[in-house]
Amino acid sequence: xxxVEPGPAGPLEPPEPPExxxxxxPGGIRVLKRTMKRNGSRHCLNRRSRFGSxxxxxxxxxxxxxxxxLYGADTATATAASTSATASSSxxxxxxxxxxxxxxxxxxxxxxxxxxxxxxxxxxxxxxxxERPLQIVYDYLSRLGFxxxxxxxxxxxxxxxxxxxxxxxxxxxxxxxxxxxxxxxIYNVRKGKTxxxxxxxxxxxxxxxxxxxxxxxxxxxxKMHILPLVGGKVExxxxxxxxxxxSSAGAQxxxxxxxxxxxxxxxxxxxxxxxxxxxxISTVDLSCHSLEEVPEHLFYSQDITYLNLRHNFMQLxxxxxxxxxxxxxxxxxxxxxxxxxxxxxxxxxxxxxxxELNLSCNGFHDLPSQIGNLLNLQTLCLDGNFLTTLPxxxxxxxxxxxxxxxxxxxxxxxxxxxxLTMLDKVVMAGNQLEVLNLEVLNxxxxxxxxxxxxxxxxxxxxxxLEGNKYITxxxxxxxxxxxxxxxxxCSLEQLHCERNQLRELTLSGFSLRTxxxxxxxxxxxxxxxxxxxxxxxxxxxxxLECVPDWACEAKKxxxxxxxxxxxxxxxMRILSSLSLRxxxxxxxxxxxxxxxxxxxxxxxxxxxxxxxxxxxxxLFSKALNxxxxxxxxxxxxxSGNKLKTIPTTIANCKRLHTLVAHSNHISIFPEIxxxxxxxxxxxxxNDLTEILIPESLPATLQDLDLTGNTNLVLEHKTLDTFSHIxxxxxxxxxxxxxxxxxxxxxxxxxxxxxxxxxxKLCISALAxxxxxxxxxxxxxxxxxDRNEELPRLLQCTMADVLLEEVQQxxxxxxxxxxxxxxxHRKLGMAGQKLGSSALLCYIRPDTADPTSSFSLTxxxxxxxxxxxxxxxxxxxxxxxxxxxxxxxxxxxxxxxxAIITEDNKVNGVTCCTRLLGCTYLYxxxxxxxxxxxxxxxxxxxxxxxGNKALWEHLSYTxxxxxxxxxxxxxxxxxxxxxxxxxxxxxxxxxxxxVYLNVGEEGCTCEMNGLTLPGPVGFASTAAIKDPPKxxxxxxxxxxxxxxxxxxxxxxxxSEVGSTASxxxxxxGLDAALLSRPERRCSLHPTPTSGVFQRQPSCATFSSNQSxxxxxxxxxxxxxxxxxxxxxxxxxxxxxxxxGRQLENSPTLRENFPIPCLxxxxxxxxxxxxxxxSVNSGILLPVSKDKTELQKSPSTSCLYGKKLSNGSIVPxxxxxxxxxxATEAPRKKTGYFAAPAQLEPEDQxxxxxxxxxxxxxxxxxxxxxxxxxxxxxEGRTELAEEFDTAL
Length: 1286
Description:
single chain; alpha/beta; seven-stranded antiparallel sheet; 20% strand; disordered N terminus; disordered C terminus; repeat; Leu-rich_rpt; phosphoprotein; manganese; LRR_dom_sf
């Protein structure tokens, strides 16, 4: 469908000149009414449904002008009665306006009463008359991450934006299904059990738990008879066919007889009403329905006790607004969270029956004093507002047992808590407290639980030494405390203080049961007296040099985690504990384990990544009481040590089911295959040579990992014995490969993905080794966490988007940011509820740093990370956007009043603060990426890309050390995934390893000693004495491109890579006459003295949808291109000239050698100047007349070729037809012999307005040529010039 011409005068007029935009219409807006073709799968517009050139010119004059797409009603939810309006409601209006145009003017121009705004395909709210739609769009795009006003204007005019933000001229959904009407119709009705009353036709409605009968036929506005059905009866009337008797409960029960016409109606009413009668609690859930008022029928349902109106736009002064809620006489629970009320609805305080009230996330700054009238209130939730104080009248609510004021702006604990004696919890997470005043808590004897996580606590104040005997649980996570002394809390049972900056911690041990102090800087933990009730102690990721003495004396401790510290030994008293079940001592500096004497009930022992060289021989032997010392041991992790053997006494651990001992020096297979319950064995990356196996293996063995044992040889008999194992991992024999000394790539990659224990793989990877004409590379990793759709979409589209953005900007920060933001938009409806982490690495020639050949640009959102190995050391290039690891992002989310749950997730959904997708969590979750660029040097060895699961179980240093000596990148990637799984990773894990070779050793030039192939195979060119005379020059080493003069250039340009190839031999070259020049790589470009440029003569652009259902965004007019229907003919100027003017160039003379006269005499000397700005490694100087000619529109080059799926394919090296043309034949044959009569479609076209300019340039070019030297004429023929139009 092409562009639609503007209609007649009126609301369909095209824009007038800008000097009088509002002279004819009051608002100065332009409305273009089009019948748009919808994309059924994405509900987005087809790309061909755009406004014309005049509208586009009007927009370009001012960035404050734009386009608003105004949709009709969405017929997907319309009833059958409204199907006749389907055609008209699907029309779309394009409204040209400015950022200052209010909604009222657009409504006046459209003949609408009001406008509606829908965000992310979810909620729909009514716009106020003073709101400005275009400014709303601009603000939305700005908050997403767009900075350039021009780009914001372009994105605002993109119809794909409708999946995130859409305007309607009428409300897009019907409200019939919101008023709890289950069934309705006009039937014969008789009141009462006797036959005194007559039958009459009435409107009968089954609504909620009530039967509503109108007093007048087909009328809902008159008197309505309401019959509560809860606890009543629904019986069949036998004397009348298809008749039911509805009776209410109670002593004064009423009965209505309803007669139906068909059996189907009778059965449907009987089935539905029977369910209603059996109900006991009436709950109405109208959340997320874009309501501004309550449906009228709800007020007739007197039995409603709980009403959920979360995520709506409820208003106050409306017929069904909040001011009318007092009509619900039995209402006990009301949820009005996320309604953006702005102010507390005072009339709610008159509903005296309320026991539960949720008003979270409504933008309240204060509470009215009338809230003290809700004497029956037991639960009050005010999270996510802007409250700083609470009224004293709140103390009247003596039945209040739960008060939530998290994520507000309180700077201290409100004193009203002292009056609320029924409260046992102070829940104030995410506020602005800076001082922990224990004196205030001492005045609240009824408070037992204190939640102050995610505040700004820095210091603690104790005014007196009086102890607090009431507080039992305290949560101080994610604050800024450096020292914490809670020894006055003598009844404290549980303390959470993770992710602070604690150096010292002091507690009372009288009642202490659990202590969580991970991720601090602790050097000392003092607990007095010894905690006799302590069961769990977690002190990982601190600076402890020894296990606290009091922990060794705790009699009931079951779990001890001191991993990631500085421990050098494990106390004997810990290993002798008769209560310890789980001991985690990994990632320390332990060198020896103490010898056990007695039997202990230890079930899990984790001592991975220490300095152990041997285990005590008596570790698994029997104790004095004839019991095995570790008889109950179930899991043993010995990975990352220096063990050579595992004691044979391990066979005494009859309950052992998991043994992980990878990355050691074990040479003898341990005796574990006779254990009756063994399930998982990991002995990878050791020095095993053979395995002695019993005659039969235990049936429980499921996973055996033997990879990384280079000297291990398994016989066929052994493999047959292992055949029943579910998962057997062994090294595959490498396939024979032929090493070629001719080519050397700058990078190569390997990818490994493992699903773990999940039944689907939600990871996708992107790897393009030859990106943008083969001089760059793109690698990416996408992790959808629980969804696999978004990673697949990003894998298919993100490279194309990057190529488009690279052609629009050379700034790496700009094109990388736009790549992520555009990909976020292109996710469409799939990105509304789903999200994905994304990591993109782009390697390209570095034009900014002359000392570097390539630069690496990395961008990411979410938890996928990239690490560069430089000189054997890890260099992180990405940023983790999570609440736990990024305090700035956590503060941003808190400031925007998101609810962060106790498991550190935004609204309980995700721990990430930036993702692609999840648009319904805007503005908390954004797609703007973190971007970093670094020039690649010879010290850069490899690049590692991994998802969250990989980096949770591997440190940067460990990952680099594990693969830095592995030759194969695929084997390196598999090794990383295997290591992560060995460390307990059960989730999806993905790793990509990219080996880099961008130094001098990656050079393929002959000047560096590499031998290049000759004309036949790998023979030298000197070996061929009498080759046949050529008809066309060949392209063996990039010298010339094979081209058929009988093929039109339109055919050549329509097939990528059809005009250049490095696979043909050079038999056709006359080696005796032509000397082959040195071959150069991109590190050492060939010095040239001329320029030859070629552009495609014809291309076909299509705006069809891509295969993945996402629309492309690149139909802007190209300068120098004339459109004709669906085909685009590109004006071509192919001009070949002798570049002798360059001989006088000082730059060229200084940097490049000048060809000798003999070389010039044999033929033309050409150089290649890359057309694509992405691939411009070195730009050679160009003669003046040539430069001026390139400025004309007729010589405008296209950066890529548009395919039918909307993607952009880079121009191949084939467009650079000749790199070195010194081997050009002297005879007029082959490619250089242009036909005498040009083909009509091959003639180059010059627009009329440029004809004079082109003629002057051609004339100047002819006059500026120097006369040939007479001495040269005697030695050889005059070099010929060709002006060939392709």
